[in-house]
Specification:
- With 483 residues, the chain is α/β, with parallel strands linked by helices.
- The chain has three domains: 121 residues, Rossmann fold; 120 residues, Rossmann fold (3-Layer(aba) Sandwich), CATH 3.40.50; 120 residues, Alpha-Beta Plaits.
- The chain contains 16 helices and 22 strands.
- The longest helix has 14 residues.
- It is globular, with a radius of gyration of 23 Å.
Length: 483
Amino acid sequence: MKIIILGAGQVGSSVAENLVSEANDITMVDIDRNRLMLLQDRLDLRAVVGNASHPSILENAGAQDADMILAVTEHDETNLVACKLAATLYNIPTRIARIRSVDYLARPEIFSTENFCVDFAISPEQILTEYIVKLVEFPEALQVLDFASGRVSLVAVRALKGGPLVGQQLQQLRKHVPNVDTRVAAIFRRNQPIIPEGDTVIEEEDEVFFIAATEDIRTVMRELRGMDKPVKYVMIAGGGKIGKRLVLTLEKDYQVKIIEHNYQASERLAEEVSHALVLHGDATDETLLESEGIAEMDMFCALTNDDENNIMSALLAKRMGAHKVVALINRRVYVDLVQSGGIDIAISPAQVTIGSLLAYVRHGDVAAVHSLRRGAAEALELVAHGDARSSRVVGKKVEEIELPRGATIGAIVRGLSETEDHLARGDFHDQEETHSQSDHAVQVIIAHHDTIIESKDHVILFVINRKMIRQVEKLFQVNVGFL
């Protein structure tokens, strides 16, 4: 696939790294020559220096015969104009734009074919906010990811010493949760993947990924790990785009304090919040943290634009008694260093965001992609099509499907309406359709060896190594000649 990526920032470079490794023809456009040269030295891609919204630059990048354009610069207006030009001048089939402004996102008609011709709009800030909100709702989890319009959840937890998981074989799982169907999709032990079998014994400090219907997640977590006390007090460091979104989302249900070092920004934020307390100061100021009751905080979220500040403030908050600390870290090397060094969860914005983009680039009908363990593994939601003659999965039992070793089918969602499917993917072509779920039954089926896959099923898979993804995608592609 020939793909043009506009913007060589964190999001653009991370997407390029993933797509280049999957044998795509990538051209990167950015106004920063040095940034492009560094990428070109590291990755097999073509670089074009210039303004991404100028027709001449798009032509230099090969817009005439491109299959897809990913407009992920830091400026919404540049991304919108580029998508419009890509559609009207070059007829590029798929156009994806990064949109940061809430004003634009609140008016989906802006993205229609009559206006800016955006097929899919992604908001990294909104994706990150929703990701962190899940961690607040489930404080014992390392990751909580949704599939099939929120019908199914994949949750990662740490097996703690003395917990009900440790020392147990997976085949004993049903005894712990007899009334709920769930499945362990993968286990990571000392950063190495363990393929889950019935006789696999969970050890202390294992990272366990389990899948269940979203409505059953709390029950499963209560039985398998034990629930932490619910979060009540939250402190946020950084009142930028992500911190602001998070405080506005949480303040209705939690007691929230937010620290912003810029005085004017803190004043503006104080005018916008309703219940949260806005503090002007430095999140690495020990005296400030102590006076504001850091030891009573159930969760501390370091969300400034500075990696070093986030790391230091999170470590300080943890040392001073905060129950759980989360740090937003852009540099990937830092994420790996600090994850096990006092910071409970280190979040890489690029890795959280990238799944939303990869879902549109994958071969076959991919409804969702989530990057796991900082990009080492992935969870995919693929839609099965065809029949027993044209498909290698439809009409077959799970045990009969020739999945590569290390790929696991965790769950199947059957009966999802087309409208709900489009909305889940962020397809703006169907905004005028009703957003309500039709009254037909939707089934969440936890996959077992004898579960049979039907056409139009949404199949959720866990892949422990990204190198297997192409094999998995090929399995779900319909044979040539199917109509």
